[in-house]
Amino acid sequence: MFVRNRFVLVLVGLLSATSALWAQMPDDQAPDDRPAPDQWFFQIVPHYETGALAILSHQYQSGGDSTGITGSGAAKDGAIFDFIKQGGQDILFPYQRLSMDLHFGEANIVTFLYQPLTLTTKTVVGRNGTTAPVVVDGVSFPSGTVLDLVYGFDFWRGSWLFNFAHGRGEILGAGLSLQVRNATISFTTTDGTLRAISQNIGPVPILKARYAHWFSKDFGIDMTGDGIYVASAFFNGSTKAFAGWLWDVSLSAKTTFVEGSTAFLTLRSVGGGAQGNNAYDANSATTSSASSYSYNALATAAVTLGFEIERF
Hints:
Layout lengths: L1 H22 L18 E21 L18 E2 L9 E13 L3 E8 L2 E7 L9 E3 L2 E3 L4 E18 L6 E20 L5 E20 L5 E12 L1 H4 L6 E16 L2 E17 L15 E17 L3
Antiparallel strand pairs: 1-2, 1-3, 1-14, 3-4, 4-8, 5-8, 6-7, 8-9, 9-10, 10-11, 11-12, 12-13, 13-14
């Protein structure tokens, strides 16, 4: 909890510093030496960023019914598992992100993104005064068991954005994204004798918005947002109704450090979740039990440094 609170304070401080720098920027420092979009028809802009990720909240349940519990006694199949309090996610994780923008003319931007997001931790069931076992998808892990936990939610995303600004050094756009999730969640005893694992892959349609502006040739901001909430089998790519939501929002302060290349400091939050009965057929050893209840809610915050190359 202490690490997470300190991390949030750092986020607030960096945001305040960025706002102050923005407020002090003279209005007459127009980025007139930056190339206008109509000076090219096609442009490739690769991006890379790396930094630290903190988990703000993360709860998970697999098994039981919509009330959250079945069975009796202390071992309740489907009880909510808190990855921060019980699963060792109260630390910082390495974070990176790779993407590429393809600019077509002055109005259309296509983006391809790969986001690795796999969190690996260890924990001991029943530490800090609790004695109840952890039960996931019918598998009971007794108190005192050492667990290896993997929460993997890597994804690929393709986006199209239409830029309404059409101006030099500015983007004001909206568009659509299609994300492919690649989820793996596993609870495994260190000796390998017990394991609960759930995996699935599927498409997720998303709405997208972006605002970027250069106040001078040396300073600009870039705000992006992707997000959606759906509660339909059609949109979730399954055969059963299943609610899902996600967001990916960021604020970047940018500067040109060499001609044609930009460095940036970014504050980002990525999160999402799902709720409902299992939307997939139990046709493999890594699929949760048919029609079992599932709940998953994750919220993160990251601070990163990155660069992009506008001209090769």
